[in-house]
Write a structure and sequence with these properties.
The chain is an alpha/beta fold and 326 residues long. It is built from 12 helices and 12 strands. The protein has 2 domains: 145 residues, Response regulator (Rossmann fold, 3-Layer(aba) Sandwich); 165 residues, Alpha-Beta Plaits (2-Layer Sandwich). Helix 3 packs parallel to helix 4, helix 8 crosses helix 9 and helix 11 crosses helix 12. The longest helix has 33 residues.
Length: 326
């Protein structure tokens, strides 16, 4: 009869690895596990074989003997620990000396069961070990979600402002060390507010997702596109040769965004204003590059929209005069 807590689990999907140099013990454990509902049970007749199998896949649970010729159970535990694997490990062994048991627990064994074992005791321990495995997986996933939200935009799945600045800082260090150039671009959707006001925020959100997809399709794997905030995107182009290579990418982006967007029966036309700053000619640190790309973008928005320009001293003077007159 199955242990009650095991009945509530999808135990058919649980993968187990049973490691023992005694074939009779392997077969006995396999039979007990199959009767209890575990269908994915892999056998290893020694520590060396177990390590080979762990190099290819990671089971949720390992039932491990300690005393085996050659590569013993402690060696398997050491490999598992150093590889950072997530399996829960139950030691089933006739070796009960304190140093062996202590070392097994130090290396991450969940529990220790002496041979000959009682089937009910083993099944109860398995149930508890799988409970802990599930809790650890849940906790790890929650931490991943927290980390993701800290560095990525939940709407577009693009890096957010914080991660973008980190990437720019890395590019800056690389460029300084290797005497390379990189470009930083600010991109703002023209008249996006009118779309939100006319069609609602759900369509506005979909527009942002599609814009992100279209821009991303124009980029290299090493480029970083970020949703910087609202309807503003930022783009890092590392290792560029100069302005010509940057404007080639920018023209592709403008061409893609100019294509009509078809959303929920609506055909929408969008345009981008893009400002460009290039290290080191138009900025030598993070703040200066961000500021100069922003100034260049607003120069486009205030003069012609649906276009791009690179930051220059003339643009700065125009921006300064505009602010004074305003």
């Amino acid at each position: 009869m199955l242990e009650p807590s095991l009945c509530t689990k999808s135990i058919g999907r649980v993968e187990l690895l049973v490691v023992d140099d005694q074939q009779a013990q392997l077969k006995s454990l396999q039979q007990l596990l199959h009767i209890s509902g575990f269908t994915s049970v892999v056998l290893a007749s020694g520590g060396e074989e177990a390590i080979r199998k762990l190099q290819n896949s990671t089971p949720q649970l390992i039932l491990l003997d300690l005393q085996m010729p050659g590569t013993n159970g402690l060696n398997v535990l050491e490999f598992h620990h150093q590889a950072g694997l997530d399996s829960e490990i139950i030691v089933i062994s006739g070796e009960t000396s304190f140093p062996w048991v202590k070392e097994a627990m130090r290396l991450g064994a969940y529990d220790f069961i002496c041979k000959p074992y009682k089937p009910e005791e083993l099944l109860t321990t398995i149930a508890k070990a799988l409970d802990r495995f599930e809790e650890k997986q849940k906790s790890q996933q929650e931490q991943k979600n927290i980390n993701y939200l800290a560095y990525y935009d939940s709407l577009t799945n693009l890096p957010n402002r914080q991660l973008f600045k980190d990437r720019v800082q890395q590019a800056l260090v690389h460029a300084q060390r290797n005497e390379r150039k990189f470009a930083l671009l600010f991109m703002d959707l023209d008249s996006f507010k009118a779309i939100n006001d006319s069609h609602g925020h759900l369509i506005g959100d979909r527009v942002l997702q599609l814009v992100a997809t279209r821009i991303s399709a124009c980029l290299r794997a090493e480029d970083t596109l970020s949703r910087y905030g609202g309807d503003e995107f930022a783009l890092l182009l590392p290792d560029v040769t100069g302005q010509h290579g940057v404007t080639t990418v920018v023209k592709k982006i403008l061409k893609e965004v100019r294509k009509p967007f078809h959303i929920n029966g609506h055909e929408l036309d969008l345009r981008l204003s893009i400002g460009i700053a290039i290290y080191p000619t138009t900025g030598t640190d993070l703040d200066m590059l961000l500021q100069n790309a922003d100034i260049a973008m607003y120069h486009v928005k205030s003069h012609r929209k649906d276009n791009y320009c690179c930051y220059s001293d003339a643009i700065f003077r125009d921006h300064k005069n505009t602010n004074i007159s305003a």
